[in-house]
Amino acid sequence: LPPPTPSIPAPSMIRRLTLGGCGCLATAHQYDTWLGDQVVNRNLRAVWAAVLTTYDYKFRIDPEVPDSLSRVHSRVARRWFDVCAKNGGLYIKLGQSCQQLNHVLPVEYTSLFSKMFDSAPPVSNQSIRKVFSEDFDGKSPEEVFAEFDPDPIASASIAQVHRATTRDGQRVAVKIQKPYIERQIPWDLTCYRFLVFALEKIFDLPMYWTVDSVCSSIHQEADFRVEASNAEKARRGLPSDSSAYVPHVHDHLTTKRVLTMEWIDGVRMTDVEGQSKMGFSNSKIMELVVRTFAEQIFLTGFIHADPHPGNVLVRPDPGDTSKPQVVLLDHGLYVTSSEKFRREYCTLWKSMVLLDTDTVQDVCSAWGVADSEFFASMQLLKPYRPHKKAIHVANTTIDDVLKMQIGIKERVKNLLHDTRLVPRELILLGRNMNIVRSCNKALGSPVNRVAVMAYYANRGTYYSNPLAGSPSENWLTASSNGAMPWTKAYSEMMFRAQLFFISCVYYSTKIWQHLNELMGRRCRNFEELLEEGIAQTIEAKLELRK
User: Is 306 among the catalytic positions?
Assistant: First the structure.
């Protein structure tokens, strides 16, 4: 007998299965779009963008075509800008981070993503009232506050802010989390883990070691009770001269998704015109900003990790209106440094200024960093050249910048020989420094940022952390036998002489730049040269196209 013929599904059955599958997919898509907070759609969009980006950089760069790289930059930048704008939420933060890395990313990225600061759309009043009611036992904003403005005055990536007045007449800002954020975060962070893991394997670069710290920080940022606690701790660490201020938090009006804080009238730290109307110069403002964050980094170890222009306001000091005061907002994302790391980081900076290569190498080795020279350059955001002239006074040329990029992929791969030893504080600390550097550069570099930070790093090597509960001690005025150790005195003298020399050269350079501007010529500073050099060469030097 012939073998039995295998049964073949009737065409009608295949059509029914196909139509049923398509119908299920369409139903799932519509549910996710309208009822499921787009948790699947958003992350599929990001994954697809990552696939296309990998393909572009691996296979679509033609070294024979001069503008091929620029076209790829533009295409990829527009793709990710659209993804961030459509997805919203945490993706807005991704876009903001791209703009702040204008010393690393090509101009095609930074010019486009500079619009991302104001691109977080508000949600409906009904959605906000629902979140508020759920966190306040069914009460509406009007039942809790004497006055509440339903129209938001600001909208950020995870929340929006409304004006209100408390029952006792105090003006406050009420920050309310957007309703979908709590449900989107687990999905977004899962997608983030997957993308970082995949990109690490594709480009063969150490990346995944940062994931746990970033995810933990995002979870904390979404809990406004943590932000309230951070604000109080940050206030205790502020300088005593009232040059910086943290608004008071109303704890009884604060929940996991609602934060009520003292209202502050002020202008952004990059609003030069607004500061001028107050009678303040942008150089004075940036000096206060750099100094405030340098104190956090080197003295208290409790560091604001998201100090973009919208989170730093300027106002006249209420105690003396002739003086400016910077006001720090949005305390959800902070770095808490261990005392060990804080002191080591101070030592690293001081050693870099003194060109003490042995100490720089010792600190880097303890942190699992193999390439101390390259790592030092990344911390200073300037080339570290210990065997040449002082890093802050050497004339930097385009050739210097290009040489710094040669073989960068291998240096990045070998930079971290043991990621288990790398302090996790460096991840968000670098974010703070990048944002401050970016703002200083946008205002024309009115402040010698590196010199100010080096000054506070030196202080941090011999001052106790005021937030650690122990009194500050200055070895210049106190020691076990009443006399200052001569080795420390000599080191301090050399350090201060170096800072004095740096300041002299800095102001001489500023005078030269002003003279050139009067003659109709413009002198480029180092940070601009660095950005231009990286924009032209970083992809080629990273060898992203095999």
Answer: yes
